[in-house]
Amino acid sequence: MFETVDQIRNFCTEHKIEMIDFKLTDLHGRWRHLTIPVERFDESIMTQGIGFDGSNYGYAMVENSDMVFIPDLSTAVIDSYIEVPTLTMVGDVMVIERPDNRPFDQYPRNVVKRATQYMRESGVADEMIIGPEYEFHIFDHISYRVEPQNIGYSLSVKESAWSSNNQDANAGFHIPPHGGYHIDKPFDGTFDLRNRMCMEMARWGVDIKYHHHEVGGSGQVEIEVALGELLKMADATMVAKYVIHNTAVKEGKTATLMPKPIFNEAGNGMHVHMLLRKDNQPIFYDENNYAQLSDTAMYFIGGILTHAKSLCAFTNPSTNSYKRLVPGFEAPVTIGFATANRSAVIRIPAYAKTPGAKRFELRCPDATCNPYYAFAAILMAGLDGIDKKINPMDHNWGPFDFNLYTLPEEEKAKLDSLPASFIEALNALEEDHAYLTCGGVFPEALITTWIGSKRREANAVNLTPHPKEFELYYDL
After folding, report:
1. Residue 147 annotated as catalytic
2. Per the domain annotation, does 114 fall within a domain?
3. Taking residues 287-301, what's their average pLDDT?
4. Residue of 361, 366, 384, 433 marked catalytic
5. Do 262 and 376 sit in the same domain of this protein?
6. 273 lies in which domain range?
């Protein structure tokens, strides 16, 4: 929308904007922000930037933690969640050096940019096109405590079957467990809220494909967006999470993209559709191959499946992720590919038949990821497969055009699976990350810091007593 500082300033005058807000992404994929009065926004910001102390964002320390934020003017939008008229935008982070600043190589947007440049330098493709699907839960209330004498959580959802005996404001329409897929009003109590979320996301430049109620009968929903270029969709994922959270709070509810917030119900994934283009032409299509996928596409799949376990450290980076990645639910656990089969890690949509639409989706990721790191890691794994010509059919990775969940146990034992815990995924990343550091895309310091930080998270969870343990062991 905007290309120059003058355009921004004229827009601010026209719309009576009083503050300019800059959103920065920390190591774990949370937005942080800093704000200046609109009068201080001038050309110098595009060269000198806004200074801040990067040591508080979780990244590995550099020789100089003083950094500057340079805004990306094309991302500017009025933030309707702020009372004072405010224009907000994302951007990039630079390390202060003389004579010129240099991109901070650990900053998420810079990692995606470098991965894209590496892809172009390889000659394989010019752009990666992706489309994430956002599954999440909308609750009426959530409370949790983690104290030595009080550990637990409680949530309420009016539409859930467990609310059928509520004595207050109960209309009697409740969704049974696992019964929410595409359910209509009056059971679907969040329809209007999702409409408003989608309209707000569109105002931020995120193109909406559709939205609907999901399988989970206790507030699980989905918003799917149109496919777009890699960096744009990483930005869009940050926008989607911001809009989902803030719209829910604004309307007296709460939303979470946690992979498994409710026991024994379907979890929340973030399936990622993907394809590559070169010279504006798709390169994943070949009408004579399996599922009309080209050799390049098959090698890309082979790379992802080769590195699937270590990829999980970035695409599923929470202990809660592995409560979703279990057999018997919507989430896949078998390392393999298939057409129209939701039980395989990689699924080839049967409905995507034309050359321009031919793609596949990676079904294991979830939205606890830092989208920049996750999407860049997926690209690097695929490029490694193309470079090494890894054909997944040569590694017992499919095609699995049958239900993997119903296989006899002796057959299941022959198949490889995703990590069963976050610690396993981090161990895999520690052993298998050379494909990420190619071309300097992922700095070694970033990977080391990521593993150390996430190990501390996993250990903290493992050291915390669980309510289920009291049920199982209290009387022994």
Report:
1. no
2. no
3. 95
4. 361
5. yes
6. 127-473
363 catalytic, yes or no? yes
As a whole number of angstroms, the distance between CA 112 and CA 121 comes to 14
CATH number of the domain within which 33 lies: 3.10.20.70
Residues 6+ apart with CB under 8 A from 15: 78, 85
135 catalytic? Reply is yes
Active site residue 431: no
Structure tokens, 189: 């109590």
Q: Annotated catalytic, 40?
A: no
Q: Which of 3, 14, 53, 409 is flagged as catalytic?
A: 53
For residue 285, pLDDT over 80 is answered with yes
Our answer to whether residue 471 is catalytic in this structure is no
Q: Could you tell me if residue 174 is inside a domain? A: yes
Give residue-wise pLDDT tens across range 408-456: 777 777 788 999 999 999 999 999 999 999 999 999 999 999 999 999 9
18 is catalytic: no
Model confidence over 75-95: pLDDT tens digits?
Answer: 999 999 999 999 999 999 998
- Do 404 and 304 fall into the same domain? yes
CB 226 within 8 A of CB 138: no
The answer to whether the pTM exceeds 0.85 is: yes
3-state secondary structure 60-93: CCCCCCEEEEEECHHHCEECCCCCCCEEEECEEE
Catalytic residue among 271, 307, 347, 359: 271
Active-site pick, 222, 235, 265, 330: 222
